Amino acid sequence: MAQREKITGLVKSALGPGFALLTLLAIAGYAVLGPTGILAWGDYQATLDERGMQLAKLEIERDALKNRVELLDPAGADPDLIGELLRKEVNVVHPDEIIVPLK
User: Fold this and answer.
1) pLDDT category of residue 26 using cuts at 50, 70 and 90
2) How far apart are CA 62 and CA 64, in angstroms?
3) DSSP annotation string for 21-87
């Protein structure tokens, strides 16, 4: 009987540290293998590079649109741009003009 109580006491005393050890191992495994873990950093770098290229393209497009907005200033709009927009958007042309669409 004393042997059984001794074993039971050992199991009870090891239960707390064992649970703590398993918890720490689970946290460490998640830190390494989880979706935001150390192994996911390579994917993040690839995504960051891809988004950087997208950002550069969007900045170029934004600058082009900003330039067109500045050309459409009501105080002094560019006559060539106004003529282009009238022909393109409103379909207004002179009777003697010929439109050749370029694609």
Assistant:
1) very high
2) 5
3) HHHHHHHHHHHHHSTTSGGGHHHHHHHHHHHHHHHHHHHHHHHHHHHHHHHT-TTS--HHHHHHHII
Residue 45 and residue 84 share a domain: yes
Range of the domain at 26: 1-33
Split into its structural domains, the chain has a count of 2
**High-pLDDT (> 90) share of the chain, %:** 25
Residues 44 and 29 in one domain: no
Q: Bin 91: left if φ > 0, else alpha if -120 < ψ < 50, else beta.
A: left
pTM: 0.47
- On whether residue 99 sits in a domain, the answer given is no
Most confident residue range from 24-33, 74-83, 93-102: 24-33
Q: What is the SS3 assignment for 102? A: coil
pLDDT above 80: residue 74: no
Output the six-digit token pair for 49. 């590079």
